[in-house]
Amino acid sequence: MNETGINEIEMIANNGSNKGPEIRAPEALSISKPDMRMLFMTCVGSHMWHMESKDSDVDLVVIYIAPTKSILRGEKISATISQRMEEKNGVIYDTLGWEIGHLIDQLVKGNVNAIWNAASPLVLLPSSVQEKLKALIEANLCRETYRSILGMAESQIQSEKKPVKNAGKGYRTALRTINFGIELLTNGRLCFEPVLHIPEVSEVAEKMRRLEEAYEASALPDLPDEDAFRNFLLRLRLEDLEKDKERSERQ
Question: How far apart are CA 204 and CA 182, in angstroms?
């Protein structure tokens, strides 16, 4: 996938496992930015964890690159594309876009959403960029991500206190986030294990305690190698500039 505009999507993807859901991404996805080149697309949310129900939305993330030429000219670029929802064949697609520079900024900060967006096991539109970035993420897992994971889990726990359609959902999502964090901090692995039961408050509290212990005992570096991520982005920008030059010469 080299020249895919992010308003040109029409595909069916599967993660290669019999457990993985088949997902159809509708054309356009309400994201129309023809000057942006899509690098890859992942599926996050409940499908990423194999915790979806028949009523679950499909949460898609488009990672795109803005023209390097525009950046060098000082033009304002979109760091994100606003979240949009649309229905196609009875399925609701919830789609957002992140520019690769914004993604790198968040990865350097240890943001867990950025890790999920880039390293989800459900890659709907694969590319060498995604494969290399995932490998870079796995080589640079760090203790700083604990803060993001903790904040995410606390927010999910708080959601259980609001009137909700599915009682226990907040605790289930919190527990999967906590388990992800414990495995990351303890063993330096990205593990997307589903939580298929409704946990008790006591179980969630105990896992929160274990998450803190994992953070305190973690042998991971405090921060990722920022230079490695910045150099990755630099290479992408330069490659994009070269492709733009080649396109101009062909015209």
Answer: 13
Q: How many angstroms separate the CA atoms of 128 and 93, rounded?
A: 25
Which tens digits make up the pLDDT trace of 95-137?
999 999 999 999 999 999 999 999 999 999 999 999 999 999 9
Domains along the chain with CATH numbers: 11-140 (3.30.460.10), 145-217 (no CATH)
- CA dihedral 67→109→126→134, nearest 10 degrees, is 130
Q: What is the pLDDT of residues 63-79, one digit of tens each?
A: 999 999 999 999 999 99
For residue 243, the one-letter residue type is K
Q: Which amino acid is at 112?
A: V
Tokens of 40: 């890859």
* pTM value > 0.85: yes
Distance CA 233, CA 99 (A): 11
